[in-house]
Structures are given as C-alpha cells and as structure tokens.
Amino acid sequence: MKNILRKSWVLMAAGLLLTSCNDFEEINVNPVAASADQVQVEYFINNSIINAQMNPDVAERSFILYWKVAAHYQEGSSLSAGGYNDGWTTAYYNQVASWLNAANTAIEIANGHISSGNTQPYTENLLQVARIWRAYLMSEMSDNFGPIPITAFQGENPEFSSEKEVYYYVLEELTEASAKLDASVATTEGLRKLDPAYAYDFANWRKYANSLRLRLAMRLSEVDPDKAKAEFEAAAATNDLIMASGDMFKVKEKPGWDALTGVMSREWNSQYLSQTLFNTYFNLGGVASEKQLGASYHAAIKPANWMGQKFEDHFATKTNNPSAGYWFNGLPHAIDPRAYEAFIIPGDFSNPNFSNYPSWTTNARNTNRQLLDDNGNVVKEINATNTWNPAGNGSWGAKGAKNRVYSFQGTIPRMSQEFRGSQSERVFFGPWETYFLLAEAAERGWNTPLSGQEAYEAGILSNFEYWNVPQNDYLSSEEYNRNGTSVSWNHTAEPSATYTMQYENGYTGATEVATIKYPDNHLYKNGNVKNDRLTKIITQKYLAQFPWLPLEAWNDHRRLGLPFFENPAVENPLPDLPALTSANYQNSSVQFFPQRLKYPSSLQNTNPAGYMEAVKFLGGEDAVATPLWWAKQK
User: Labelling 379: which of 362, 525, 588, 620 has CA 20 to 30 A away?
Assistant: First the structure.
C-alpha cells in the first residue's frame, strides 16, 4: 500500500489534486502525510472524474479539434484532412494517463481498506464505482489510440495490450462491478459531494455500468459479433439501464480556467455548422420552418424545391457533398427541429443564445461579406442575415482565397451560446443512446427488452425531450434529407437516384434547374442503400449525440461508415490525405477519414519497447489513417 501511495502522489502532486484540495482542507488532513488507512477512496474517484472534464487547453485540442472535427460536428482543417499535432496529442495522452492513475489508485486503496478491515459501509461500493469509471477511461483512451496498457499508469514502462484484450477486460470489469454494487447502501452528505456525476446514487452507477456495457459490446459488432451479441444481451437483460433523463451521466460545468470549465468555451473557436450536419438536418422530419420560427423570419424561408445560389467559381465543387457549389440564400423550407436550437441563424442578434464570440471583435455581428475576382475586386456582396449554410472543409484553393463568406463568424450558423458559456452539464451518457443501441441490436436480431421500432422512437423522443422541442409528426415523416434518409421506421423505400431543384445563378441572377444526385456512401453497402433501418438509427443517434459525445459519433462512423460523411474538398491536393484526389473524390473510402490518433512522440522516446509492442498490436503504421481493430478496414 505504501508503494502504491508513493507512486500515485509522485505522479499527481504537481497539479492533479488541485480540484480536490478544498475537500482535503475541509477535513484538515494533509493527503501526502496521511497513512494508508487515512487516505480516502472517494478523493481519488472525485479527482479522476473532475479532471476528465478536461481543462480548456486539453479540451480545445482533444474534444474540439480532434473529436468534434473527426465526427464532422464542426469543420476543421486538422484531423478531418489527415492532420496531426504532436503537442495536442501529448497533452491529451498525459491527461488521460493521469485520470487512469487516479482511478487505479482509488481501486488499490479500496482493496487495501477492505483487506485491513478499515472500511465504511460504502467502501465496497466505492471500489465498484472506481472500476466502472476506470473501464470508461480505458475505452476512451483505446478508442483514440488503439492498443493501450491494461495495468498501467503506476509504473514507468507499462506493457501494452491489444484492443481485443482491452475490450474483453473492460467488459468483464463492468459485468463484475455492476453485479457487486449494492444500491441499498446508505451514504453521507460529505460523500455525496465528492461525486460530481451521481452524488453516489449507486443505483444510477449500476445503470451507467450496464449501459456502458451495451455501448462497448456494440463496438465489437463488426469484428467479433458473437462476443458482441453475448455481452450485449446479458447487459440488456438486466433491465437496469439509463433510460430516463434522471439516469443521465452528466457533470456540471462552471466558468473559469480549470477542469470544470466548459469543453466548448474557448472564444476563438467558431463552432460552425458543419457540412455533414447541414445535409443531415435539411428536410429531415419534414417539419416546416414556418412552424418553428416567428413571423419575422418567414420572408426568408425558401420553397421546398430551392437549392440556393450557385457560385461555382467561389465554392468548392471537388467533393461528394450533395450541396457543393451552392450558397443557401435563405432558410430551409423544412428542417430537423433540433437544428435551430443547436445552431443560431446569422443575424439573429435578439436570440438569447446568439454567441458574440470572439468578444474582442465585431465579427459575429457582421453579416455582410464579399466574393472577389482574381484581382481582388468585388464580384458579389452577400448579406448572410437569415441564411443557413455550413462552413467549408478541406482545401478550397483559389476559390477559397476569393471567398470571404464561407468561413466567417457573422455569416455561418454557429453553435448556441448555451453550450459555450460554461453553464451547461457535460453529458457522458444520455438515455437516447441506450435506446438507439437497443434499436440497433434488435435490428441485428439480438434479444432486447424493446422492439427495434419501440427503441428507435423512444430514442428520438428522449432526445427531443432533452432539446425541449415538440415531436409534431416527426416520427411519421417520409421526407428525405439531403443524404436520402427519412425518419419513419416503416418507410424504407430508397430515394430516386436524383431529384430536380431550382436555383439561382449567383452571378447573373437567372433562375435555372439542376438535377441533384443523392450521395453514394460506399462505406455502407457499397453506396446502394441510403434509407434502411440501420441508417435511420445511426442518423438519429448522430444528431442526438451532438454536441456532447463527438467521440461516440466518430466511433460509429469508423465502425459502420454511417451516417454519410462528405469528403474534404480537394480543389488543391491535401498533403496529409494523399489517398483522396481530384480523380476519386466522388467515392467514399476509409482512407479519406481519420481513423485514430498517433501515439505522442514522447512514448517512443521514453518507452521504446512499449511503443513497439503497441504498434505490433495495431497491425499497421502508427498513423492517423490506420484503422482500429473494431473499425472498418477498407
């Protein structure tokens, strides 16, 4: 026990316990001087959970510039185009290792207390909570890098394990820990204050363990289906899952600059509407904008057959984005009702959730921008007030150099300030995810407590409850979004290959007709299927997980190729994504999307044997483009 404590405090004392120091001071105990019997398990659990919220430095790089970009929840020229930053990755790797160190220490201390008989009535439960939380952290780390150590972060040179070994281990841990939790055990007020997620409601911790087991079991669906099915069915059979808003695993954010500061709070990051969200929201559910917006917006709403203004010399076209080349000069006729809640319309300054970031400029309130010619002369003045367009992704080349509109704070819908002001609760697991996992399992023919349709529709309604938007006739809608997917569970008719839309020639003002092709997602059933039930499930899950669970959205896309992600534009070649070219950009390929994070260079320098072991288990280069074991390989 003394060796365990010594290792832990050496690794953590420099800053890891900052969030818990007040708790220690309140009981007037010096943690470094405390004996093994005096050190309390709950301090280490509290420390691990709080610090895993990520301080603003790590959150900006990992949550936003890696996870949200990889999930196509926002545009970015880094990971989505194959880019990589060793400094960003090093910061995250060191942090997640420290969170795991704290969780491991909690487990070791709890076991020590139990062995010595120096326990509280809740000590055994704290041990199980620490195991459950450690299982999540290990899955998060592995889903970023691939092979990781199982019994690590208490020694200098840990041994690495394969992804399969990691997943089998965490599934076993969740199974055992959830079974051993005793929900009847009483807690104290002081103890409850040291659990920022559930205030040590052990019944909720058990639900989290079982739902997390569903998530991780489903991750193996394509590579190890027998194991996935067995683990999933066993967890589902408990009927003890996160299925209501009160069961949600979430942690309250607060303003400042520490681990509890909002993960999306940095002002210089614009948090634009992405092209993927634009195409996925558009017309999905068939809910008219007139029903969602006040009368002052109605003049800006366009007809259902309106494509927008075409500016082919100023907007990238070398991409399989079905909206490529167009500027939508108004508001959609119909749109998923969560869209206007998640992103605020440009120029909507009276909206209390309008974001003025960055506050040191007036960019957010400037909706007037220009398209230029090769000599820098103005070709077109654009007022983006009451328009709905995504930001650009990839390389726009000369077109981007002449376009002052497509990536500017005042002209593109940006994420609601509700999520940016450090006043929200960061969601780690919502009830909608449980329902969508059950729906997918039912669609696969696995044993589930709900039918596929029941679970699918319950997932949608659960997320609508979270967003506080009305359902109306959403569940019965047979309208296709721009990816060719509808909402209704029983509407599985495939869309026609193309459809006709009107548009305005942006340069001449003439109204013309275009034939628009639904995109072919070659990552899923060779691009031949756009509206089957699995596509519907993952489409709804993708929208429901926004904005808190980008890593899960990225995981689903790596696992299934769903929903449809457009390729980055290649008006110029992308040096970090050489597989994507001007000759193949209409295709979808695993090689066109990031698959993982490279290990930090410090790992290779400080633990070369461990690094070589990890790369061996990876089965490919230590590269962004190398798929993980459970993901699609081609």
Answer: 362
What whole-number distance in Å separates Cα of residue 457 and Cα of residue 436? Answer: 9
Mean pLDDT score of the chain? 93
- In angstroms and rounded to an integer, the radius of gyration of the C-alpha atoms of the chain is 25
- Cα distances (Å, whole numbers) of residue 497 to 201, 322, 516, 527, 539: 52, 12, 9, 11, 20
Contact 549, 543 (CB under 8 A): no
Cα-based distances in Å from 500 to 512, 518, 614:
11, 11, 51
Enumerate residues 6+ apart whose C-beta is below 8 A from 349.
Answer: 365
Query: Which H helix or E strand runs over 278?
Result: helix 275-281
From the list 407, 399, 405, the residue with the least C-alpha distance to 571 is: 399
d(C-alpha 613, C-alpha 597), whole Å: 17
Distance CA 328, CA 560 (A): 30
255 in helix, strand or coil?
Answer: coil
Burial of 296 (0-12, 13-18, 19+ CB in 10 A): exposed
Amino acid identity, position 17: L
Distance CA 229, CA 214 (A): 10
What are the backbone dihedrals phi and psi of residue 403, each rounded to the nearest 5 degrees, phi first? -115, 110
* Chain-centroid distance, C-alpha 106: 28
Residue at 203: amino acid letter: A
Q: Which two three-digit tokens encode residue 195?
A: 């659990």
| Cβ proximity of 599 and 424 under 8 Å | no
Question: Side-chain half-sphere of 533: how many Cα atoms within 13 Å?
Answer: 19
pTM for this structure? 0.94
- Ranges in the chain, pLDDT < 50: 1-33
Query: Is the Cβ–Cβ distance between 222 and 524 less than 8 Å?
Result: no
What letter represents residue 434's amino acid?
T
At 503, the amino acid letter reads: Y
